[in-house]
Amino acid sequence: MDIISIDTLQTTSWSGGITHQIAIYPSDAVFAHHDFIYRVSSAEVELDESNFTSFKKYTRYIISLNNPLKISHNKGGHIELDPLQVHRFSGDVETTAYGKCSDFNLIIQNGLLGSIGVLRHDLQEIPSGHTIIYAYDERVYLEVNGESRIIEKHKALLIRSKEPIKVGFLSSRAVYANIQIN
Fold it and tell me: From which residue to which does any coiled coil extend (predicted)?
């Protein structure tokens, strides 16, 4: 098992605000070229209405970290998401979001298994592969397979493991992405 601290996030602007790339795999992939297997990011959505970039051959996951969010696919009805509620959708559908928020995102190539979620205070087992744990609001204290770790606010851990990991969460306000890849 490898555990790597992610202390520097790449920040870029997009039409609806700013985004902080937490992890991209492989590490030499270029997000704009769509040549990655997965990408984990957090964004500050600063507009009341924003359009998502299309990502053919990818699946997307999103969690609003602080405010309700409405999502519409292909100009259809709205899906209302409460804060910390996960929404999964195809990357190639026309998607519009309504509402300002901070969010957490996973974009993963179709055919791979992935998930995002909120870490709870009890012990959780997370599947093998790559797991990114992001402290979005405050310093986070946790244990990974019994080993104590601290993640500072707006920092992350990347855990690569060929076996499932057990994460004990000792404080609040962290989310994770898991990609079942070895």
Answer: none
Range with the lowest mean pLDDT among 35-49, 58-72, 161-175?
161-175
Beta-bridged to residue 60, according to DSSP, are 89, 107
Name the fold adopted by 8-109.
Jelly Rolls (2.60.120)
pTM above 0.90, yes or no: yes
Q: 3-class secondary structure for 9-29?
A: CEEEEECCEEEEEEEEECCCC
At residue 124 the predicted structure's pLDDT band, cuts being 50, 70 and 90, is confident
Q: What is the largest CA-CA distance in the chain?
A: 47
